[in-house]
Design brief:
heterodimer; A: 276 residues; mainly alpha; MetI-like fold; 0% strand; globular; B: 301 residues; two-stranded antiparallel sheet; 13 helices
Amino acid sequence: MSARGRWFDRLLGLYFVVILLFLYGPILVMAVLSFQGPQGGMTFPMRGFGFHWWTRLFQVRASELQEAILRSLLVAVETGVIAAAFSVVIAFAYRRRLPGSSLLLPIVLLALMTPGILLGLGMSLWWRILNFQPGHLALLGVHVVWALPFAFLVMIAVLNRFDPRVEESARDLGASESRTFFEIVLPIIWPGILSAALFGFTLSLNEFERSVLVTSDNTLPLQLWAMLTVQIIEPDLYALGTLTILITFVIVAALFIPTVIGQFRRLGGRAEAGEE
Amino acid sequence: MSSYSLPEAAPVPAVGRRRLTANLSWALLLSLPLLWLLVFLFVPVLVVLVVSFFQPTLSGFEQSFTLDNYRLLLTSGPFFSTLANTVLSALITTVVTFLAGFWVAYYLALVVPNLRSRFALFIIALAPFFTSFLIRAIAWIPMMGREGVLNSALLSLGIISAPLDFLLFSNFAVRVAMAQLYMLFMISPIFFSLSTIDPAVLEAARDMGARWWNILWEILLPLARPGIVIGAVFVFVLSMGDFATVRLIGGGASTSVGLSIQNFVTFMQFPQAAAAASILVLVTVLGVVLLLRWGSIGEDL
């Protein structure tokens, strides 16, 4: 490559760092501000440094947030499990080219693209017409709709890596369809299913736009919204924000690091060798 | 080549029948997620359309047909300027995320040398997307406020002499924050389509004397077009429906249709909310169709 190309590549590398700063900057500033001293406000300057707002978060806010956190965790676990199970079914139907399965992708993408506020409004009106109490089922419903496209894309990626010869040989050796699925296919794609579930869990845990019109029982983001729009906000909110972002990063790391490493053990060598 | 699948062997007849019953059970299983999507996606969207034609009452709606909701919205100046502002914000966000995001995708897909660091960096860029949308919106407040990081930095550098007020609680602030919140939806699809480009093609172009802008204009942009269109559709749709960013970062100074929908619901004016949502969907779909058409025109050339 020419010297000019290398110069351009370096510039792009610098630009990438700038964009990372743009993406992470606000989060980092928020994390720093959560260590404000007791007199400190929502912005710089720092008035002292300490764990005042963090202790306040755990001592004063915790009781206020406890219910919302538990509700959020419950919905997130259910969303993860259901979205993962559904994504397996849809991905297999898609892969086996069942009649009409070409419609599955547009349907799933529609679920992804429907604006949250529209879905939330529709759900609350629909429940109102049915005379149902808004609540857990409606909330779970829209969360699964939100998580499903991502889980589906994960499963498609997993199944693309899955070697169909394994399945074929199991069948050729006389295993029934269900036995092939449960004893051969399922154990192999299990890590993929787990990541689909974790995806769903994380998306549900942080979901706000679909939830806001659907339920009157607050989840954690809804509680946050109430605190933001009604109360005077204080730096303990930054502590809470930093905490939830840390938790999400741990989940994302747990999700990706093993998949990435595993993938490279199996295929990376080949792909990288082919690239040189 | 990135395909690892082998050509399928011709099925043995007995296996063929077994495959049929297996397909049947998959189809039965498939009815569960489809039913879920029917109840929690398609019917709600339809209900919005239907309710938008219902007569509003004090505490909700009664099921009699009227066009008043639309008439009231479409003859009201404020709603139009809200709609115009929403579309403008969405367009600006889409263009900005494309101009800024394309080079990130380019860097990741074509400059970073090996696959491992490529994906590692991609995931680092992707990670903020999974965190709470609300929290990321809040995090902009200390950046942009009167005493925020940006103003302090500009003041101490002597670029400005008094804090800039438009940095927070303004349309400008909303668009900057939206660009940050939605950028990843632009980067990811472009990254994936650029990743499929065989580096040998670029090598050949360079060897034959193409300059970098020739390569960009005649090879990279056409090949990345599907990714660009998908990214643009994502960002446009998401910013059209946004209301949390507008509320938190815009304060009272910015509006969006999503926010008016939420306000209608707060005052139990469901049919008006539904009518506003239907107009929002109509305009959004129109925008998406235009984007897709622009995308496919490029393919024909």
